[in-house]
Design brief:
There is one protein chain. It contains 3 helices and 4 strands; from the N terminus they run ββββααα. By secondary structure, the chain is of the alpha+beta class. It has one domain.
């Protein structure tokens, strides 16, 4: 499951007015079976990707990747309404990119090993496949 869920304006149970942003996600460290097979890892098809990656523990900070115009509008509105604060608009992504690439390769190998996908289905030639699987 990827993407932005709803911005709620009232609590169904109590009727109290509130605004909250809920993010739909289904990838947590060791928690979901899909994490062993997912070759996306960072929510590439979502409006906003969220991760506590690199944030000091207990800081309440999170890492956001804004991927679409809709995602940008949501974040801009949240900042404008002081619901969130941007603490570092240009974080260093080099370590995260290395981790993501390593996870993609590992999970791609897992998928091939379990016959869940085939190189023919992905339309890869042997040289492209070698590049993907190269460590």
């Amino acid at each position: 499951i990827q993407g932005l869920a709803k911005i709620l304006t009232s609590d169904f149970n109590t009727g109290a007015e509130r605004t909250s942003l809920r993010l739909a996600y289904a990838c947590s460290s060791g928690g979901m079976t899909g994490c062993k097979f997912c070759t996306d890892f960072s929510g590439e098809f979502s409006d906003i990707s969220y991760s506590p990656w690199g944030a000091p523990k207990g800081s309440g900070e999170a890492f956001l990747i804004i991927r679409t115009d809709v995602g940008q509008k949501v974040v801009d509105t949240a900042v404008e309404k002081k619901l969130i604060e941007i603490t570092n608009p240009n974080p260093d992504l080099s370590e995260m990119k290395k981790f993501i690439n390593k996870k993609r390769k590992k999970n791609f190998k897992t998928l091939l090993g379990k016959d869940l996908i085939t190189a023919k289905y992905l339309n890869l030639n042997i040289d492209e496949l070698k590049d993907i699987l190269e460590d």
